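At this stage, I wrote out one protein, both as residues and as discrete backbone shape codes, and that material follows here.
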Amino acid sequence: MRLEDFENWDTEKLRQIINGCFEHAEEIEGDDRRVVMLEAEFYVRELDRRENRRAEKERRDADTKRDEIETKRRRVDLGIELLIVGLIGLELFAAVGLAIRGSRQQAQDVRQELAAFSNMQTVLSNLEQTSEKTSETMKSEGQTMEVMSYSLQRQVALFYDVQTNVVYNESTKKLILINSGRANITVWAQKIGLATAPLLHYPKAVVIPPNGTYEAPMDDLLRAEQGELPKGTVGGLGFTYLVKNEKSEKFTVSGDIYAVWKEDKISLNVQPNGIVPGWKK
């Protein structure tokens, strides 16, 4: 057997040889059996090496594909922002053009007045009034530009603003987190129950699209409250979600949960407290 033949063997060929070694080892004893088992171990290691290499290639391909998708998404976001900036620039350019045209018309009016009137005092007075109007116009345009710039920044911020609501579904016994914003959010961790309850980190962040929901079962919490909460009293609980927007900015969604008795069963009332920047554990 040559090295080239060994390298050209596929996985099925290696498995056949390994099985053959194991079968042959059962038929012999002593040093011959150890030699055959060492040969089988060599082929098993080669099979593991090939499997690891295949798995590594699949992982790299998956990472490359994910990077390509993320790059495309960022390019789309950049294109939208550039389009908005371009529209504002076009509006500013049109406003400046109208101002220049108005200034030229004013200059023509001044020349006509100089030709029509011989009284220098009247001409100077008209020029002074024209200058004041031009100054007021430029000041007004500057204020308009500031308002437009602020409005653009506010619109971009509102697009990525995190807006959620949390409700309890009595029929399904689930706590429902609703994304009522205009962009995706990702949930990274949650804490539901008493203030001393542990913070549960997800192995992988949960993506909630606009108008999408994420549900958390409350059966275990209800059973615990059913056994511990005296009838006629109200149990104070809470919930906390650690989320991020599409700009990877961190926010904390929190609220109160009140456990109350309704006849012989525990019911939950949810009161969201709001959304604050950063992760408050």
